Amino acid sequence: MSKQLHRIAPLVLLLLGAAALWGSWSLGVGELSAPGPGLWPFIVSLVLTATALLLLFIDEPDDYEAWNRNALRIAGGLLSLAVFIVLFEAIGFVIPAVLMLLFWLRLFAKEPWRLAVPLAIGGALLFYLLFEVALAVPFPDGILFAGTGR
Amino acid sequence: MGILEGIGTGFSVALDPTNLLYVFLGVLIGTVIGVLPGLGPTATIALLLPLTYEIEPVTAVILLAGIYYGSMYGGTITSVLLQLPGEAASVVTTFDGYQMAKQGRAGPALGIAAIGSWIGGTVSVIGLTLLAPPLADLAVEFGAPEYVALTALGILLVTYLGTRHPVKSLCMAALGLLLATMGQDLITGTTRFTFGQISLFDGLDFVAVAMGLFGVGEILYNVEQTEKAQAVKSKIKNIWPTKADFRASGWPIARGSVMGFFIGVLPGGGGVISSLASYATEKRVAKDPTRFGKGAIEGVAGPETANNASSTSAFIPLLTLGIPANVVLALIFGALLVQGITPGPQLISQEPEIFWGVIASMYIGNLMLLALNIPLVGFFVQLLRVRAGILAAFALLVTMAGVFSVNNDPFDMWVVLIFGIVGWLMKKTGFEPGPLVLAFVLGSILETNFRRAMLTSGGEFSIFFTRPMSGTLFALMALVIIISTVAGIRRRRQRSRPATPGEEDLAATGTTAEPEGTPGAENTDGTATDEASAQSDSGVGRDRS
Amino acid sequence: MRRTRSTWPALIAASVLTLTACGGSEDAGTEDSGGEAAAEYPTETINLIVPYAAGGPTDLAARTIGSCIEEELGQTVVVENREGASGSVGMQAMIAGGNDGYSLSLIAVPASATNPLQDDVGYTNEDYVPIAAVTQIPSALIVGADSRFADAEAFFSYAEENPGELNVGVPGSTTSQAMELRRLAEEYGVEVTAVPFTGNAEMTTAILGGNVDAIFINSSQDVLENIDAGSFVPLAVSPPEPVDYIEAPTLAESGFEELTNSVSVFGLAAPTGVPDNVVSTLEETVDTCLQKDEVREQLGEQYVPDEFIGSDEFSTRIDEIVEAYGPILQE
């Protein structure tokens, strides 16, 4: 891979800083005696942009870790979390929780099925009882257990 | 109310059976999560936050404070036995504590750490008792410029002290300040950077950001590194240190208490910096500095005392000024706000039960920890048998459910996920989440006070320098910047020379100044690029040539 | 990113209620479905949403009146805090809860009425109807005990001669207090610098520490205590008529006839389209409640309106506020 790859992070920050500069300027910076809503964000974005620009040149490649197959697994794990949130909003807590636990226990902890399945179901039910019943957190209504909320 | 009378009130609150139970729960939970790598006090307190809405405010703070200083004890255990700091402030303990364990002296190492922590904690509570009331009186006089100076100092300290790369940290601090501006502007009421989302009206939820960066980010990173914690084989015996141990540790504990107390008071100071400072001092004053890193008991006693002392004194700026000195205290700040209590100079006079009750509970909690730790070390060690993968799966689920329960809003779950990704990427690219989160926490205090100062002074910057208090603080900051810039440039020139553990310059230890409450296990990984060295690197004395 | 704030429970609850009310209609919408159906009210649990955090003054008002309504009407009242976006989140939740009379909210005027004027907050002032005021809290202009201004006259004449020099703390930039100070400058030429704070605690500290010259503040319990203790000196109060528990002239008496709107009113509201009999039942119940000693005591005797403010009068108040502050906010 290219030796310049590590410059992506400062570059992203630089772009972010530039966007924030523009954004805060358009909010209106006002004057020092009567600061507008954009003044402070503008100052802060200046710092962000300046440091990112500096990093673009002085940052050391050593600080950056290599990307490998593990990183790919993490991406999979992240996707599972996103799926969890979507399902959670649609069908409540219990089923998505079982699925997510199962996924993580199998993929990352590499537990055998005979351990993963009871752990996932038990864990999901335990947290359901803890949050929904004991703490009265109004989870979205589930198709398996109705929410006690509204 | 005088101090004696206050303490009386405090103990009558803290000795209430419910509160006693919560102190105990707090320190127990704190110890357990301190032991478990990958689950720090930040994530735990964030998780338990919604729970505390149901209980009395004073009880809530007693519980959360107990978790915080309890985790300082717990973190020691894994540092000594496994060379894995259970939370960030115990990193230093791995230097000598683990060496002691290898020499079969794990018992005394843990023993002296517990005793030192108890002394440090107690000294610090006494300091808190005596200093907080007069400080609060003084703090009433503080205006916007002083608040600007104090918060800026906090961000600066986290950025410059103990981080490997101040420019990167400053960049992250700026990002944190920028993120803090999202939502409705407190001064003009304009909405900023909300992209038309009602959910962003109040800005990003701090709990969600902290849990994403520290909770999910750490979990992901640890999982990627694949678990390395193995169950401990060695038996721990003779916890109680010998007379010689006590003699060697006496002064380090005394110095650690004082140093920890004062560093903890600084916004942005806290456990990590105080334990590093204590280690560096002990090494410097030692007759034979070469013993350090090879199992010197002073290297355990001093830092462990200091980190516990600082975790107690960190309550001073919160309870007297309303400034959270670090991320954990920001969460406790949030817990109080939800209960309708604004910490600040008025707290002592308006809510004496809370102020004194929390202080009194700390005396009790530290005693409980001493009692818990000496006999129960063996039990806590067993916790390490829980496999990291299982822990990660459950921690993630609790994080998601917990963050939902803060506002009952699925939006916050997405915030956690996004900041989890950001946190993981930051780990991989050598950016530190600590300055970002602290800047995020202090951002709105800094901004509103900056603008108030501008409003009241009619736009004159001189207001920051002409008032004695803020003038002094700004001079101090200039000094920090100059010194660390010079040191940084010098270090860059000598980069090829490998650093040794506890190098007199804090920044050179290669230890990152995570904010309080970071689960510390990842600190044992190098940032080296190849997998093999990442597994073996102890996080100290890293040669980055 | 989704912007729904867990509307699922509310939607489902609404549709369940609608189904019961309309006798099996498939329509799960929340518009115009309550209408004529509720001959008997209440027959279900009433949801009372507080758009602000637990523990605050609005929360206190809601819980006190909620438990009294529960007692009077024999149906459970569930008080729920849905804070966020200066109260807009709670208002949205109340409106989404359906207009059958089982989804109510505590509104805090002027904020509830001025928020939609300033931004798109997901509701407008047409989306809810006020039912009854529970408490009203006037604002007071206060200086510290060692202030150089002995009375309102000294304060305002100094301000007039030295435009912008006096710093006055206000609880936020879009609060009635801040707005009144702007009108003071625009309509009467008396210019002070409004310094926004968040909440009474911060303002109290600021005036005690001498970091502002005065504060214009909601005279809630803590402020009254400070006045009694002598650390606060009230210069003027905001309502049209003097209040008997603060010894100070009104702003109107001090020469600013128009400045009478800075009074916080906490009251009940329901989504627009709520059946008339529900409104009248709740009006009567609140009226009864406000005459009970224990309710008055809990709310703070002095804050309960001397004369009951029902739906019509409450609406008129809101219209006045919209008229007075609308132009300033929409600038």
Q: Which secondary structure elements does this structure contain, and how are they paired or packed?
A:
The complex is a heterotrimer of chains A (150), B (545) and C (331).
Chain A: H1 8-27, H2 39-58, H3 69-91, H4 94-107, H5 113-134
Chain B: H1 3-14, H2 17-35, H3 41-52, H4 57-82, H5 93-102, H6 106-139, H7 144-160, H8 166-180, E1 183-184, E2 191-192, H9 206-224, H10 243-265, H11 271-285, H12 298-313, H13 315-321, H14 327-338, H15 347-350, H16 352-382, H17 388-407, H18 410-429, H19 433-457, H20 463-466, H21 468-493, H22 531-536
Antiparallel strand pairs in B: 1-2
Helix pairs in contact in B: 1-16, 2-4, 2-16, 3-4, 3-9, 3-14, 3-17, 4-5, 4-6, 4-12, 4-14, 4-16, 5-6, 5-12, 6-10, 6-12, 6-13, 6-16, 7-8, 7-19, 7-21, 8-19, 9-17, 9-18, 9-19, 10-11, 10-12, 11-12, 17-18
Chain C: H1 7-22, E1 46-50, H2 57-73, E2 77-81, H3 88-96, E3 103-109, H4 111-118, E4 128-144, H5 152-161, E5 167-170, H6 176-188, E6 193-196, H7 199-208, E7 214-218, H8 221-229, E8 232-237, E9 263-271, H9 276-290, H10 293-299, H11 311-329
Parallel strand pairs in C: 1-2, 1-3, 5-6, 5-7
Antiparallel strand pairs in C: 3-9, 4-7, 4-8, 4-9
Helix pairs in contact in C: 2-9, 4-11
Q: Explain this structure to me?
A:
The complex is a heterotrimer of chains A (150), B (545) and C (331). Chain A is an all-alpha fold and 150 residues long. Chain A has two domains: 5-63; 69-134, no CATH class. In chain A, 66% of the residues lie in helices and 0% in strands. Chain A is built from five helices and no strands. In chain A, helix 1 packs antiparallel against helix 2 and helix 4 (94-107) packs antiparallel against helix 5 (113-134). By secondary structure, chain B is mostly helical. Chain B has one domain (3-536). Chain B is 68% helix and 1% strand. Chain B has 22 helices and two strands. Chain C has two domains: 7-137 and 263-329, Bordetella uptake gene, domain 1 (D-Maltodextrin-Binding Protein, domain 2, 3-Layer(aba) Sandwich); 138-237, 3-Layer(aba) Sandwich (D-Maltodextrin-Binding Protein, domain 2), CATH 3.40.190. Helix content of chain C is 40%, strand content 19%. Chain C has helices spanning 7-22, 57-73, 88-96, 111-118, 152-161, 176-188, 199-208, 221-229, 276-290, 293-299, 311-329, and strands at residues 46-50, 77-81, 103-109, 128-144, 167-170, 193-196, 214-218, 232-237, 263-271.
